[in-house]
Amino acid sequence: MRWSLRTQIVGLVGAMLVAAMGVYLALATRVVTADKEASVYDVNALVAGTVAQQVGRTVDGIADKLRYFGQEYEITPGDAERRARSLFDADEAVLSLEVFKRTEGGFERSFLFVDNKRLAELNLTADDLTEARKRTPAPLEAVQSAGLVLQNASLAPDLALVRLSSATADGRAVVIADLRPEWLLSAVSTGHVYKVFLVDRLGRVLAHPDGELVIKREDLSLLPVVKDALGGKLARGTEEYEANGVRKVAAFARVENGVGAVVVEVPRDEVFKATNELTRRSLLFAVGVVSLALVFAVLLGRRVTRPLRELQQTMMVISRGEFGVEVPVAGPTEIRSVGAALNEMSRELVRRSEQLQKTNAQLVQSEKLSAVGELAASVAHEVKNPMVGIVGFAQLGQESVDHVEIQEYFKLIEQDAFRANKILQNLLEFSRPPEMEIEALSPNDVVMGSMALCVHQLQMQGVKVDTALAEGLPAIRGNSNQLRQVLLNLMMNAGQAMDQSPKKLITVSTQTVEAGFVEIRVADTGPGLADDVKDMLFKPFFTTKRRGQGTGLGLSVSRTIIEAHRGQIRAEGAPGAGATFIIRLPTASGG
Questions:
Q1: I need a surface site. Which of 115, 162, 337, 552 has the fewest CB within 10 A?
Q2: Within this chain, do residues 447 and 588 fall inside the same structural domain, yes or no?
């Protein structure tokens, strides 16, 4: 399928713009995405590290107080309640305080203080704390080994509680404080996009923006980021993972005192929401630009192709033989140049066509005169007979005295004179330059007119001419002079071709071959035609006659005349079987 120039222009502009916009959007999106990813990773890591440091300092501050209380408790146990009260007054997050001493059988609680007033403010009782201790006992052995343990001791449905256990410096006692989680929740407060939470060393939630997860003591140890935070070699890091069907970008940082780790995470879609929106708007902008460019490309294509279409239409008119048609010179400089060149070509074609017609007419006339030259001897001989009769009857008329006999001689003289005049008139009419008058003609009349010119010449050569003319043939349209020239040329050629043949016979026939066409056949009994000769017969200057006996233009001119009459001429025959020339002409009604 061949595309038009306008389609190619629009397609090329569209493809280039789409490619350019696509590459630009891809590169811009990649750069923005990479920059955004780096920025998010940096922010997550910074937030995680900062919160981890804050949590570590807060935990260390309370742990120092607990260790100090434990040491003082071993020295003066009787003053423990007063010091506990002062500790409570210094830190509002503390709800209760316990001291476990190391014994031979394990650990035994030696001190318990509960601030009932603070519990009442929270709609809690000491029994709630007792139940929480039963559900989540402090890992005393682990505390003594690690020195510090922070755990979630919350109790469903509404008791949020954090327990901090610290061993004294000598390891003989463990001090435990039940704390309100607000001091941790303030550290993990975040917006609607970023989420910061704290897990203990086992992966359970200590503080989380979702309070329900704190109450349920949710186990997040299976999260990839929590696994890396608690079990990896790095104290800080970033990671991307999928949880509950949501792709997340996260960072972690371990709390320095080993109580757990801080995790910062954000949904990837939220991170790149602005980037996606920018990409979407850029894509819409690109579509708009491409659409606008295509509109301009279509307009430009029309401006370029309109004069080209006019050029094409003009060329089609010229190709049909209607020379002299010119196209308006308009459009871009290049198109105007082509249009001017086409107009000049059209004018030159008119000049060349006129010159060619004159040359062709001269060629036809020269061939006709050549035929006249060949007929001269036979015409002179044919005219001689009536002239002898005229002279003889004139002499007899002078000697006669009988008036009736003289009149009879005058009639014979008149008949011979008319006969000679007819012969000369036919020759003169044939040799005169033709006037291209197209009229309805009888095919049989054209044949008989041609035979009248050459039959005597052929008889002098010993050639017999037969006819087989069909009756009732439809008329054809053409110029009788030119058609007679073609038939005369064919019959004269046939007579010359049979010069050495034992049988010399030319048969001229007419017939209707199909609706709208008539055929005229000229057949001879000459040597026939070889295949290579048949292919060359109608080419200019080709002849089978001896040097000096032909120009080789007769059949070429004949074909030109027949084709000008919208007909066809062809030759048939084989070596030794004679030759037949077939002229096919359209009828007046069919043409």
A1: 337
A2: yes
What is the token pair recorded at 112? 């318990």
- pTM, two decimal places: 0.49
**DSSP tag of 587:** B
Distance CA 201, CA 221 (A): 9
Within this chain, do residues 416 and 389 fall inside the same structural domain, yes or no? yes
Q: How many whole angstroms separate alpha carbon 303 and alpha carbon 130?
A: 92
335, 339, 342, 346: CA torsion to nearest 10:
170
In a 10 Å sphere around its CB, with 0-12 CB exposed, 13-18 middle and 19+ buried, how is residue 504 labelled? buried
Q: pLDDT tens, 461-490?
A: 888 888 888 888 898 888 887 888 788 888
Does residue 554 contact residue 567 with C-beta atoms inside 8 Å?
A: no
Same domain (yes/no): 519, 559: yes
Those residues with Cβ within 8 angstroms of residue 162's Cβ, 6 or more apart along the chain or in another chain: 150, 151, 152, 153, 154, 178, 179, 180, 181, 184, 206, 207
Catalogue the E-assigned strands of 127-228.
Answer: 148-152, 162-167, 173-179, 195-200, 205-207
Write out pLDDT tens, residues 257-303. 888 999 998 888 877 776 667 677 777 877 787 788 777 777 776 77
Q: Which domain holds residue 37?
A: 5-274
Q: Give CA–CA dist 141/326, Å, rounded.
A: 110
Q: What is the separation of C-alpha 572 from the centre of its chain, rounded to a whole number of angstroms? A: 53
CATH assignment of the domain containing 427: 1.10.287
Q: How many structural domains does the chain have?
A: 3
DSSP label at residue 78: G
Same domain, 460 and 408: no
Same domain, 424 and 483: no
Burial of 583 (0-12, 13-18, 19+ CB in 10 A): buried
* Distance, CA of 187 to CA of 193 (rounded, Å): 16
Query: Distance between CA 279 and CA 286 in Å, rounded?
Result: 10
Share of the chain above pLDDT 90, in %: 8
Token pair for 313? 């239409």
Peptide bond between residue 157 and the one before it cis (omega within 30 degrees of 0)? yes
The last residue of a domain, from among 408, 433, 458: 433
